[in-house]
Amino acid sequence: MLVVLVILFYAFGCAAVTICPPLLTSYLFGEKDYGAIIGIFTMATNIGGAFGGTVAAKIFDMTGSYGSFWLVSGVCIALSVILCLISFKIRKKYHY
Question: Is residue 1 classed exposed, middle or buried when 0-12, 13-18 and 19+ CB atoms within 10 A define those classes?
Fold first, then answer.
């Protein structure tokens, strides 16, 4: 049963990282300058992925716990959700 849960969460997690950003970018900003916009988003995601593990390890070395890192990560995720919701409201206002 646990294997099934892992497979389901992994499948949805992969889609959230690989499929959703290009679709959301196209929906929110349209096709004009799509390549440049998705390039910036992809670069930011890759930089976060490259340094995230190192930052987590450094925080663990300094504090002996991952608690601070999880707290900062949670705040960043909440901020991302808020910015995404604001983007949808702006899109409705200007009808891109």
Answer: exposed
